[in-house]
Design a protein that fits this description.
This protein has about 90 residues and is mainly alpha-helical. It has 4 helices and no strands.
Length: about 90
């Protein structure tokens, strides 16, 4: 067996991985969890995880696309700027 093995990180290509999240190419799963966690501040961690699991199982939690949120806010800002310039 060769001693010159090269380690290649393929995790950044998987949009579900932590590596992709740290590089900014993730699918937004962390944003869904964070918003759910912030909307339920008085629940313990165990209850929060159980409720999140149930909500996701029944399709009431959707993956939020961070890039779509940014692009929508850019379009809104552009429309507001045009509205201010025209009127």
């Amino acid at each position: 067996m060769s001693k010159n093995l090269i380690m290649v990180d393929h995790a950044y290509k998987d949009r579900r991985s932590v590596s992709a999240m740290l590089r900014g190419t993730a699918d937004g799963r962390a944003l869904s969890w964070q918003s759910f966690k912030e909307s339920h501040p008085n629940i313990s961690q165990e209850e929060l995880m159980e409720q999140f699991c149930d909500e996701a199982r029944y399709g009431r939690i959707h993956i939020k696309n961070y890039r779509a949120a940014i692009s929508n806010s850019k379009y809104i800002a552009a429309l507001i700027a045009i509205f201010i310039i025209v009127f």
